[in-house]
Amino acid sequence: RELITESVIAPGARLNERVLCERLGVSRTPLREAFKVLAAERLVDLHPNRGASVATLSADDVGHLFDLMAALEGLSGELAARRRTDAELAEVRALHFEMLAAHARRDLPAYYRLNRQVHALINRCARNPVLTEAYDSVNLRIQPLRFRSNFNRDKWDAAVAEHELIVDALAVRDAAALRGLLEAHLRHKRDAVLEALSIETESGALAGARA
């Protein structure tokens, strides 16, 4: 899952069992079980008698998923602002500072793992297990896209600035502000991903035309 999330294995790529077994130090049986788990999460497509490949999403899929994720993040933030404890706020702040350090080092994998923990903790602060179930299900499908949205340095810097405001709103328990900030944050992620997909599509079309 991590290799897919961090774009080490690209969307649409075939999953070579021999190579992955060697890389992960496992046999084919647990690897195939992992494929089934990832297929249930809709990160992998299984092809009968033809192995498996990383799932791909259309621009429409991306738009729909991020619209839904924005609503789930927003509701999580609104409830978290009302229900979080001081200890939870301290944990969010600690993760945020670690995330800032990773951003300063331009360590995107470390930054993203911390970023993911911040968002997940805010969701848990909402104390709504049904919301968390829906949140986790949708979030799994767009993790690779959320990671890729930081490839553009300016957009990555902007996302970090948004996180500062998100933590501040959580600290003062401003439920309406936190909901709005998180919804906008996800819309900006969506726009960054769609822009990148558009550029990739145009580049592919140009390469095909030259060929």
Q: How would you name the oligomeric state of the polypeptide chains in this document?
A: single chain
Describe the largest sheet. 2 strands, antiparallel
The counted number of beta strands is 2
Structural class: mainly alpha
Helix content, binned percent: over 70%
Give the CA-based shape: globular
Strand order of the largest sheet: 1-2
Write the layout of secondary structure elements.
Elements: H1 2-5, H2 17-24, H3 28-40, E1 44-47, E2 51-54, H4 59-83, H5 86-105, H6 108-125, H7 129-148, H8 153-171, H9 175-210
Antiparallel strand pairs: 1-2
Helix pairs in contact: 4-6, 4-7, 4-9, 5-6, 5-8, 6-7, 8-9
Descriptive tags:
mainly alpha; single chain; 2 strands; two-stranded antiparallel ribbon
